[in-house]
Write a structure and sequence with these properties.
Length: 55
């Protein structure tokens, strides 16, 4: 499966609303403390990107 990196990264941060670079850093720092949440969020973003690619 090929994922467009930009679209996947956008999908990763969509649940957090509009975020700038500082917000992305804070989100990544928080997710680093909770790797299970990070895995779930990344899986959801990958699924979203895959669905968009099929559309």
């Amino acid at each position: 499966m090929y994922l467009d990196e930009g679209r996947t990264v956008d999908g990763l941060f969509n649940p957090f609303g509009d975020v700038d670079d500082d917000d992305r850093y804070r989100v990544c720092t928080t997710l680093d403390k909770f790797p299970d949440y990070a895995d779930d969020l990344w899986s959801a973003a990958a699924s979203l990107a895959e669905g968009r690619a099929r559309a």
